[in-house]
Write a structure and sequence with these properties.
Blueprint (H helix, E strand, L loop, with lengths): L1 H17 L4 E8 L4 E2 L4 E5 L8 E9 L7 E9 L5 E9 L16 E8 L13 E7 L12 E2 L2 E10 L4
Antiparallel strand pairs: 1-10, 2-9, 3-8, 4-7, 4-10, 5-6, 5-8
Length: about 170
């Protein structure tokens, strides 16, 4: 009986992973306890080509300990030749009634947040290793200084999907 339960769980996991044919890169890093304002979560990726279009996402997992309806992130994309793109982005994390957005049936919500590719196609136009850095830029209303520790974010991820529209 126990063996058949493991087989079912394995098959469900295999089906879920194999159905994700657009995925090129998908990695998470855990945030222990609270996300310090100076803590940078980084990912290194070598895209498969320099001609196709891709969609880039920052993925987050949050719990009910997250106290805000939005989230500000600073995302930096470092190209192999040294060029750097740095963006300050704002994302909605909760509906007006306070209900968290994202998917998940438990206390943890998973959010797939657009980074690049939604307004115009994104192409990794240089071959080699790219580095993506993600840092929170949250502050309380009226405060000049950012929050030292951000509660409720458990994992930060980065995802690259092939764009099937090209």
């Amino acid at each position: 009986m126990l063996k058949s339960k493991y087989c079912i769980v394995f098959l469900m996991t295999l089906v879920a992973v194999s159905c994700d044919s657009n995925r090129v890169f998908d990695q998470y890093k855990s945030i222990p306890n609270q996300w310090h304002k100076d803590s940078i979560v980084s990912f290194k990726v070598s895209p498969p080509d320099t001609i196709n279009n891709y969609n880039l996402f920052v993925n987050l997992r949050n719990t009910s300990d997250y106290k805000f309806s939005n989230l500000y992130l600073v995302v930096e994309l470092n190209y192999p030749n040294g060029k750097t793109l740095k963006d300050t982005l704002e994302y909605r994390m909760a509906a007006p009634d306070g209900t968290f957005l994202g998917s998940g049936f438990t206390d943890i919500k998973e959010n797939k947040l657009w980074y690049k590719g939604y307004e115009q196609p994104f192409v990794f136009n240089e071959s080699g290793e790219y580095q993506i850095k993600v840092q929170h830029a949250m502050r309380k209303n009226g405060d000049v200084n950012g929050l030292l520790h951000l509660e409720g974010i458990t994992d930060v991820g980065f995802r690259i999907e092939s764009d099937n529209k090209n």
